[in-house]
C-alpha cells in the first residue's frame, strides 16, 4: 500500500506482543493503515526523550517519507520517540504503554496506575488483536472441538521471559490441577514454555480427553478455537497478552500464578480481580458471571469520537 493511501501508520516493533497492541487498534478503525516495521539500532537502548528517528537503523529510517499520516499508532518506549517525530509533522499520536514524552492519547494499563488526564486512556490489561468476529469465525473453523466433553477448559501456558523454559514440575502440577476439574482440556504451550515443560504437561493431561498444541508443532494453531469453545479459561499469570485476549470471551477466566511474577504482573492480576473480570486459579472451577471485555474496541471508539480521522 502506498503511503498516500493510508491515513494511519502503525509502527510495528519487532517484538510480536508489543506490535500486536498497535496493530489491534488500527485493525478496529474503519480506514486503511500502513504497517511500518521497525528495526532498532544501538541508540534504541538509550532513553530518547526527544522526538527522533535516531533509535532506528538507517534502512528503517529511509522508509519514513512524506506524505505523512493523519494518525500514527505505536507501542512501547522505543517506538515512542518515532511516533512523536511523526507528531511533529502533523500526525496525531496514540501510544500504548508508558513512554517518554506526551502523546495525543496514551493507552496505559490500569495496573500501571496511570495519571488521570484527558490525554490518558486507562484500560484493563493490554491492547491486542483478538476480536469477537475472529472468535466467531474460529468457533466455526474449529467446530470439532465441540465433541470434547464439558466443561471444556482452555489452558493457556506461558513461561519465564528469560531462562530455558518453565520448570517441568510446575507445568505438570498445573496440568494435573486443571485436569482435576475439567471434562476436557484444550492446552496451548507458548515459546516460553519449553519442550521439557510441554512434555510434562502432556503427561499430566493423560487422564482426561485433551487437545494439546505444542509451540512450533505441526498444523494450524488452534489458540483462537480454544478460546471460542472454552467453558472456562485458565491463563498463566506471566502473560499480559494471553490474559487480555482471554477477556474477549464471556467464559470465567482464572489466573494461574507461576510464582515468580514481578510487581507489575501481580498488579495486573489484582486489577482484573477488582474489576470482576478474573479470579485466582484457587477459586476454580466455581463459575462466575462476567461480560466479555472489549477494551480495544473502546480505544478505537475514543479515537473516532475525537475526530482524528
Automatic annotation (TrEMBL):
Protein name: Nucleoside-diphosphate sugar epimerase
Phylogenetic lineage: Bacteria, Pseudomonadati, Pseudomonadota, Alphaproteobacteria, Acetobacterales
Entry superkingdom: Bacteria
Pfam families registered for this protein in UniProt: Mito_fiss_Elm1 (PF06258)
Organism per entry: Falsiroseomonas frigidaquae
Amino acid at each position: 500500500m502506498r503511503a498516500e493511501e493510508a491515513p494511519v501508520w502503525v509502527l510495528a516493533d519487532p517484538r510480536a506482543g508489543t506490535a500486536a497492541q498497535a496493530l489491534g487498534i488500527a485493525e478496529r478503525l474503519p480506514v486503511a493503515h500502513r504497517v511500518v516495521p521497525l528495526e532498532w539500532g544501538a541508540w534504541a537502548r538509550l532513553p530518547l526523550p526527544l522526538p527522533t528517528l535516531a533509535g532506528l537503523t538507517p534502512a528503517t529510517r529511509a522508509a519514513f517519507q512524506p506524505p505523512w499520516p493523519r494518525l500514527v499508532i505505536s507501542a512501547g518506549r522505543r517506538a515512542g520517540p518515532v511516533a512523536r517525530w511523526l507528531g511533529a509533522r502533523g500526525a496525531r499520536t496514540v501510544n500504548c504503554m508508558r513512554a517518554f514524552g506526551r502523546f495525543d492519547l496514551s493507552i496505559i494499563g490500569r495496573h500501571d496506575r496511570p495519571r488521570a488526564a484527558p490525554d490518558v486512556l486507562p484500560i484493563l490489561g493490554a491492547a491486542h488483536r483478538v476480536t469477537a468476529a475472529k472468535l466467531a469465525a474460529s468457533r466455526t473453523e474449529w467446530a470439532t472441538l465441540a465433541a470434547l466433553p464439558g466443561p471444556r477448559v482452555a489452558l493457556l501456558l506461558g513461561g519465564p521471559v528469560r531462562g530455558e523454559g518453565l520448570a517441568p514440575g510446575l507445568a505438570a502440577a498445573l496440568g494435573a490441577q486443571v485436569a482435576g476439574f475439567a471434562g476436557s482440556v484444550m492446552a496451548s504451550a507458548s515459546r516460553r514454555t519449553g519442550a521439557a515443560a510441554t512434555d510434562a504437561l502432556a503427561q499430566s493431561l493423560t487422564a482426561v480427553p485433551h487437545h494439546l498444541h505444542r509451540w512450533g508443532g505441526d498444523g494450524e494453531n488452534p489458540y483462537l478455537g480454544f478460546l471460542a469453545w472454552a467453558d472456562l479459561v485458565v491463563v498463566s499469570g506471566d502473560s499480559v497478552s494471553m490474559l487480555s485476549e482471554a477477556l474477549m470471551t464471556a467464559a470465567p477466566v482464572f489466573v494461574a500464578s507461576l510464582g515468580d511474577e514481578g510487581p507489575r504482573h501481580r498488579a495486573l492480576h489484582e486489577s482484573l480481580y477488582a474489576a470482576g473480570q478474573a479470579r485466582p486459579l484457587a477459586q476454580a472451577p466455581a463459575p462466575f458471571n462476567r461480560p466479555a471485555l472489549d477494551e480495544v474496541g473502546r480505544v478505537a471508539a475514543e479515537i473516532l469520537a475525537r475526530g482524528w480521522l
